[in-house]
Specification:
Blueprint: E1 3-9, E2 15-20, H1 23-31, H2 37-40, E3 46-53, H3 56-67, H4 71-79, H5 82-91, H6 103-108
Antiparallel strand pairs: 1-2, 1-3
Length: 118
């Protein structure tokens, strides 16, 4: 079974990060406003990033890590600009950056067409 961490762009241009074991179904639920919470009042939403993970724990850890990041750091990760992600991590601890290789960085080599962008 695959698990996913994903980022949605909401109608107000904010980002929402989540994880799931059924990406297509979860995105459809967000788009229909069925998830409640943050995205329900910000539809339509658009999937702009997804990455497959081996376990639910890995997907949850990646979600929590991303949620602690600044917008700039999220955008650098979505572009695949790991040098910029690293630079932003060293620049400030304010955005939740760890001082060790991230779960996302480690998973980067394993992913297979898991990334979706406009």
């Amino acid at each position: 079974m695959s698990f996913w961490v994903y980022i949605l762009r909401c109608a107000d241009s904010s980002y929402y990060t989540g994880h799931t074991d059924n990406l297509e179904q979860r995105i459809a639920q967000h788009q229909q406003g069925l998830c409640g919470g943050y995205t329900a009042s910000r539809i339509p939403v658009e999937l702009i990033f997804s990455q497959d993970c081996t376990t639910r724990e890995e997907a949850l850890a990646a979600e929590q890590q991303i949620k602690g990041w600044s917008r700039k750091k999220k955008e650098a990760m979505m572009r695949g600009d790991w040098a910029e992600v690293s630079r932003l991590a060293k620049g400030t601890q304010q955005d939740g950056a760890p001082n060790h290789p991230s779960t996302l960085r480690q998973a980067q080599g394993r992913r297979s067409s898991g990334r979706t962008e406009e």
